[in-house]
């Protein structure tokens, strides 16, 4: 489980009893100095320098039980063997096929023009999904499966689509190299550690694997602009510490220090291996491609890879790394941001907690290696990627401080290599926490909740003087805010009693035309239910052509609603198997479940077909 999901799970069970305060509207603040010193990214000019600093950082976070912050390493026996796919790669032109004749929906994404990985994709002609480790290709016109390919991954996996190419993002394990050196006579049992696997698939004709990229760590997330995908990996150093159950903590810590002092730099540098046909190449990130913030633990590393999905094969991804961890990825066509909740790390040398959230910005140029541009820190915790938004060169960030139980929106501007705070709105929802955020151009909307749902409307047109424009208090809360037209938002969340007890999916329609007076025009409640769209916006479908909103309901199919003329009206429901995604192709609604894809009439949601994965 990702740490941010764990945080959300903990927050969801915090006591909801007590009165919700109704604070006066916070006054707009002028330019405010950042509460935490900005982080400066420094590139390493040699492997010796990198190794010296990594060892020193490791010592500061080392314990008798190992490396603070490192992930446990499963035995290699638990991992699948890394065998190359047989057959040779045929030469091909990766031309994007002509656009489909019918209209179709894409993944519900944060920024238009920037695609996000999801468990199902379509180009209007075919549907591609991975279920049970098998990639399925379905022809939408004939409603038949035209190809399947066993990928060797467990369960489902998200993917990206570009013409006749699919990039599948999976996680597995790799086998550790000798991270200490030849002087170790008995390395003991072979050690495995978390590994990522990226699979480039040719969809033209019978699906086949073109290339497999295997790398250190886990896939954090990815973003795609045009045919170019940026994949973010998070890894830990390959250091195995001996453990003696009968030894003292002092002696165990001393042994661990000895291990760190003789560990080679390769243990920290993320490894990669690419297999195309019968050919396999391998290597690791160069020392010169690694940067660090001013303060770091050396317990983890972020790596950004760049792939042209129409190239003949995968490469090493032209990696660029930073010595840091990361949980949340947000991207535009020109920038990539990675945020890292640092409340889990303590700087033992300084004797105080690290900044709450670090943010790293990468500048993107089409097809080229990302470039570290700036970094900074903000107090508090981000909810998800919607907590960040770049507009007019500035980054807006919404956070909740769990200590003060208050939320804020800060505006950060790049100043050289630093993301510097230039404006702030603090004191939002005192005694509450953020449940939803949406930034739209010069406006922002924040939902906080404990017993009621204040929807805050923000004016962000002046980055140095952002201000609270209006507020709406209603029962329940919205967990996701979806634009559904000019000055209209749909909120998907939970209805709640006066005591804050959740009692069913709540769909609200908000009119935000007047920032000073946001209003709820209509609501629809599904009692005693939840929806995956509450925590994963990819599960929500908004089809503006017919004003249709579709969302899954607590493992019992999907609900279709018509949102128009200031009202929300039910269109129909598909019951039966649990459904996780919905998509539109022409006049049909396709729904994805564990056992296959259902087909329904778009206008009525009446079932008309089913394509089984069996």
From TrEMBL:
Signal peptide: 1-25
Keyword Signal attributed: yes
InterPro entries: Beta_propeller_containing, UCP006425_b-propeller
Keyword terms of this UniProt record: Signal
A Pfam family the protein falls into: Beta_propel
Protein name: Beta-propeller domain-containing protein
Organism of this sequence: Paractinoplanes globisporus
């Amino acid at each position: 489980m990702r740490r941010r999901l764990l945080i959300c799970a903990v927050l969801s069970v915090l006591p909801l009893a007590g009165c919700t305060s109704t604070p006066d509207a916070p006054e707009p603040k002028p330019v405010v100095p950042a509460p935490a010193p900005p982080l400066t990214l420094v590139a390493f000019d040699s492997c010796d320098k990198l190794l010296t600093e990594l060892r020193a950082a490791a010592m500061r976070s080392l314990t008798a039980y190992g490396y603070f912050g490192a992930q446990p390493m499963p035995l290699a026996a638990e991992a699948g063997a890394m065998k190359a796919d047989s057959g040779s790669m045929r030469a091909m032109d990766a031309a994007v096929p002509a656009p489909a004749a019918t209209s179709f929906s894409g993944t519900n994404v944060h920024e238009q023009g920037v695609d996000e990985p999801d468990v199902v994709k379509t180009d209007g002609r075919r549907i591609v999904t991975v279920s049970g480790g098998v990639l399925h290709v379905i022809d939408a016109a004939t409603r038949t499966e035209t190809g399947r390919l066993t990928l060797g991954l467990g369960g489902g996996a998200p993917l990206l689509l570009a013409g006749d190419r699919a990039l599948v993002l999976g996680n597995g394990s790799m086998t550790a190299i000798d991270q200490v050196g030849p002087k170790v006579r008995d390395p003991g049992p072979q050690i495995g550690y978390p590994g990522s696997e990226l699979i480039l698939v040719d969809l033209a004709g019978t699906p086949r694997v073109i290339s497999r990229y295997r790398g250190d760590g886990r896939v954090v997330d990815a973003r795609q602009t045009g045919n170019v995908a940026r994949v973010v990996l998070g890894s830990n150093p390959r250091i195995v510490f001996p453990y003696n159950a009968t030894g003292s903590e002092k002696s165990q810590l001393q042994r661990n220090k000895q291990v760190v002092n003789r560990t080679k730099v390769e243990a920290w540098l993320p490894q990669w291996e690419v297999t195309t046909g019968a050919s396999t190449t391998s290597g690791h990130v160069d020392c010169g491609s690694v940067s660090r913030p001013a303060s770091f633990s050396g317990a983890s590393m972020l790596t950004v890879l760049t792939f042209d999905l129409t190239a003949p094969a995968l490469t090493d991804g032209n990696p660029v790394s930073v010595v840091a961890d990361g949980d949340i990825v947000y991207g535009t066509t020109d920038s990539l941001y990675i945020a890292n909740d640092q409340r889990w790390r303590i700087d033992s040398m300084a004797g105080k907690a690290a900044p709450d959230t670090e943010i790293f910005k990468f500048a993107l140029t089409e097809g080229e290696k990302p470039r570290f541009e700036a970094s900074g820190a903000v107090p508090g915790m981000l909810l998800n990627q919607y907590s960040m938004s770049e507009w007019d060169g500035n980054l807006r960030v919404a956070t909740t401080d769990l200590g003060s139980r208050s939320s804020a929106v800060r505006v950060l501007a790049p100043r050289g290599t630093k993301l510097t705070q230039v404006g702030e709105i603090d004191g939002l929802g005192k005694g509450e926490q953020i449940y939803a955020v949406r930034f739209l151009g010069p406006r922002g909307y924040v939902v906080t909740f404990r017993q009621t749902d204040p929807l805050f409307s923000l004016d962000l047109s002046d980055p140095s003087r952002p201000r609270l424009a209006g507020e709406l208090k209603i029962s329940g809360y919205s967990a996701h805010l979806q634009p559904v037209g000019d000055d209209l938002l749909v909120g998907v969340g939970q209805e709640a009693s006066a005591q804050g007890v959740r009692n069913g999916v709540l769909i609200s329609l908000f009119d935000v035309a007047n920032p000073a007076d946001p209003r709820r025009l209509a609501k629809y409640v599904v009692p005693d239910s939840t929806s995956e769209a509450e925590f994963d916006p990819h599960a929500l479908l908004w089809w503006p052509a017919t004003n249709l909103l579709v969302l899954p309901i607590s493992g019992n199919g999907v609900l279709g609603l018509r949102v128009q003329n200031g009202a929300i009206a039910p269109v129909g429901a598909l019951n039966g198997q649990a459904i996780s995604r919905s998509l539109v192709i022409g006049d049909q609604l396709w729904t994805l479940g564990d056992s296959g894809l259902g087909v329904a009439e778009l206008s009525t949601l009446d079932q008309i077909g089913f394509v089984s994965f069996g």
